[in-house]
Amino acid sequence: MRAYQDMVFSTAARLVGDDRQAEDIAQEVFLKAYENFGHLSTSSSAGGWLKTVARNLSLNHIFRYRRRWRMFTELRPKDSDEDEPDVEFALPDDVLAGVDAEVRHGLVEEALQRLPERQRLPLVLYHFEELSYEEIAQQLDVSLAKVKTDIFRARAALGKLLAERGVTAATSLGAP
Amino acid sequence: MSADRNRQDELERQVTRALQDQPLRRAPSTLERRVLVQIQSGAAAMSWRRGFAHWPLAARIGFLAASVGVVKVALLLSMWLATPLDSPAVSVQLPSQIAWLQTMFVAIGSVARTVPSVWVHAGIAFLAIMYVALFGIGASAYRMVRVAH
Q1: Between vectors from CA B31 to CA B27 and to CA B35, what angle results, nearest 5°?
Q2: Residue B137 lies in a domain
Q3: Complex ipTM above 0.90?
Q4: Phi-psi region of A174 (alpha: psi -120 to 50; beta: other; left: phi over 0)
Q5: Residues B68 and B132 placed together within one structural domain of the fold
Q6: How far is B11 from chain A (nearest CA, A)?
Q7: pTM of structure
Q8: Which residues of B touch A34 (CB under 8 A)?
């Protein structure tokens, strides 16, 4: 379990964007692994199995919550784009260059958690889970065009957050 | 159009670079203990609270034998209740609160005796087919919903 707990927790935390919920999901993943211990203990793909289960449980958790919430709040069609302005993005190449690696990693995680769910999910599935656009559209039950738009907006928002926070961090660390 | 494409490519390149060297998040120190506690409490839970397939063999055999016994007793009781009131087999006067049960079983017994047995068998077969069909439809619907999500 120790070998995989960081991977399972990271997968859940980046998808659901909440550490407490991610810990609950990670616990569920390892309990499922315990139930399947006979099969997993001899399998060379135990890590892949755990990652897939962590991803599926995280998505199930999000969809359960979203369905419950949508009943009360959301009357828009699920594919409708939000009326967001076009993104203006410019992340200087060296914006985080003067920042300590550990701080930089923390800033990235923080920025990821601050993204709205509709942007964070496809971005994490694409960059961390290495799913294709088509697979993401299938997993999230949305159109391919929406996946592309959301990922583009997520990148822009993430870059903007990193630029803001990076400058702050660099300044606070006394970097030039 | 081309400038827009370039901008998107540049954005993807920068974000990919920012994310690709991102290490795994450290799991909370409480996670391992939570999992172990859950496993221990699950193992300590009474076996009947788990699925039938996880019961000890002796318990499964005993449960099946008890189930057959209960069914047999229920059938005997039904037959006894359905026996006409003037039959010498009935020598016990049932309390008034449950006398309606006897009346109901007598009525059912009377109807059952007048219905040809082939109808009864056909009815049972029909119910079995409907049950299997309902189970199949339920399973298919469940799979469709699961695939959709």
Answers
A1: 140
A2: yes
A3: no
A4: left
A5: no
A6: 7
A7: 0.60
A8: 35, 39
